[in-house]
């Protein structure tokens, strides 16, 4: 089903395939907790390329490969001739000759496409400007740990162009869930991507709605999610975005409009006092540390299935 394929975007996968990735993520977590992780990557080499700094992705993917018996090769961009102008296609051709898979955290999604086309091995999106599929899998894993497979409502408050949100929208549409997005009208997702997501949602019965008022979006939901307002590479528009989003902070007052047992989620890193109040992210409703831990198990699941 998966062997030899790449994971660049969850929109490329069928609903039952995403469910399989989630099922195996839970299995991997159980293996880790019982200290009987299978050596499914024994003898296999996985290159992990980082064009952007990373904490959770770096730790989770390197650990995932090594815990499954594989050999992780971690390379920052400045370690490679890529940083001096060598085409990424040449990097892919060379590395693809000696490894069994490549994970890459990049600024531009097209870099992943070029790696996939040039390397001849499975390529995994460890974050791009378009999507963050391993994060979305960890998000749904975290939600199901709290609420089971019930039809829960999710709210995202913040930047509607956010790459984490785009992956969240994709998995919500594929799984037939309900998502309410609070964002300024100036920060809506790309029309071409939203058209694809909307067509999938129509087929699965998923509900994805936009609101300009965050209180409307959060009312009656089980999950309140946000992300940083300014991502790496957006420094030139930082002040503009902060001005647009100043009324989209997740506060203790906003959380009161969600259901009583609602949880707060954030993919991290977080700017306390900007997109979220300290009392929320460090409070009893916060599930962000579970999210961060679950990044390990989704990485283990994907690598074991695809490589």
Automatic annotation (TrEMBL):
Keywords in alphabetical order: Transferase
InterPro entries named in the record: Asp/Orn_carbamoyltranf_P-bd (IPR006132), Asp/Orn_carbamoylTrfase (IPR006130), Asp/Orn_carbamoylTrfase_sf (IPR036901), Asp_carbamoyltransf_Asp/Orn-bd (IPR006131), Orn/put_carbamltrans (IPR002292)
Domain Aspartate/ornithine carbamoyltransferase carbamoyl-P binding: 5-145
Class of this enzyme: transferase
Protein name: Ornithine carbamoyltransferase
Domain Aspartate/ornithine carbamoyltransferase Asp/Orn-binding as annotated: residue spans: 152-305
Classification via PROSITE patterns: CARBAMOYLTRANSFERASE (PS00097)
Keyword field contains Transferase: yes
Enzyme nomenclature, EC number: 2.1.3.3
Catalysed transformations (reactions): carbamoyl phosphate + L-ornithine = L-citrulline + phosphate + H(+)
Molecular function GO terms recorded: amino acid binding; ornithine carbamoyltransferase activity
Organism lineage string: Archaea, Thermoproteota, Thermoprotei, Sulfolobales, Sulfolobaceae
GO biological process, one term: citrulline biosynthetic process
Family assignment from sequence similarity: Belongs to the aspartate/ornithine carbamoyltransferase superfamily.
UniProt superkingdom: Archaea
């Amino acid at each position: 089903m998966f062997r030899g394929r790449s994971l660049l975007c969850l929109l490329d996968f069928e609903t039952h395939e995403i469910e399989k990735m989630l099922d195996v993520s839970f299995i991997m977590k159980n293996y880790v907790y019982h200290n009987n992780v299978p050596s499914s990557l024994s003898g296999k080499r996985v290159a992990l390329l980082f064009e952007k700094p990373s904490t959770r992705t770096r730790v989770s993917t390197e650990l995932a490969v090594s815990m499954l018996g594989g050999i992780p090769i971690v390379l920052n961009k400045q370690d490679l001739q890529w940083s001096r102008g060598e085409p990424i296609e040449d990097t892919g051709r060379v590395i693809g000759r000696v490894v069994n898979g490549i994970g890459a955290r990049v600024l531009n999604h097209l870099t992943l496409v070029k790696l996939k086309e040039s390397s001849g091995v499975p390529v995994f999106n460890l974050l791009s400007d378009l999507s963050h599929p391993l994060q979305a899998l960890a998000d749904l894993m975290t939600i199901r740990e709290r609420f089971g497979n019930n039809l829960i409502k999710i709210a995202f408050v913040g930047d509607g162009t956010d790459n984490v949100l785009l992956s969240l929208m994709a998995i919500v549409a594929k799984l037939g869930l309900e998502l309410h997005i609070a964002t300024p009208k100036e920060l809506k997702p790309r029309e071409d991507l939203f058209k694809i997501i909307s067509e999938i949602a129509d087929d699965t019965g998923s509900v994805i709605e936009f609101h300009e008022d965050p209180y409307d979006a959060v009312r009656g939901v089980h999950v309140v999610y946000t992300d940083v307002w300014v991502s790496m590479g957006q420094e030139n528009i930082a002040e503009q975005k902060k001005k647009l989003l100043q009324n989209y902070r997740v506060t203790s007052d906003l959380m009161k409009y969600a259901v009583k047992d609602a949880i707060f989620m954030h993919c991290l890193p977080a700017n306390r006092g900007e997109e979220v109040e300290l009392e929320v992210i460090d409070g009893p409703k916060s599930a962000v540390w579970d999210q961060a831990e679950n990044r390990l198990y989704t990485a283990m699941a994907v690598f074991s299935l695809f490589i």
